[in-house]
Design a protein that fits this description.
Serine Threonine Protein Phosphatase 5, Tetratricopeptide repeat, mainly alpha, 186 residues, 70% helix, single chain
Length: 186
Amino acid sequence: MTLGTLKSALPPALLLAALVALGVAGWRLHELRQERAVIQALAENHDVQPADDASGAVLFARAHYLLIRNRIDEAQGFSGRIAERGGPELAARFHYDVGNARVRRALAAMDASKIDQAIPEVRLAKDAYREALHADAELWDARYNLDVAMRLVRDFPELESGEEEEVKAQPKKLWTDLPGLPRGLP
């Protein structure tokens, strides 16, 4: 190839490369608009199922939609895909939302005087807040809510015993794990 033929072949090649780049950018813009439409629909209380190849942001929006409707078990199914596609910050926000949903459920059980149902929910909320802090240690809201949940239900170390006789000799548990119930002497 001579210099003259190289100069004449260069402009069509550049034009073709520019057209390909424009096509790729246009397709990506179309995908972003579709994602934004799904997120907007979920924010407007429309139950929209995300596509199998949805981005982390769309999966997070769907999980948030489920969590605010107390459908925690369904939302838990998005955990792995959100962490994989959305990164640690989005995974931390997801676990934070799960913890908040668990605390709301626990508080509702406490209001209904169902303490036995509230205690496991608070413990699961604490686990979710810890997961959020594991993903993003700078998420101060999760740290604060973990502190509040720790005050709701205390974590006591379990006694390790290898013999059954020691277990039988332990007194019956008279107090609940919720602090402040019962208050004690007047």
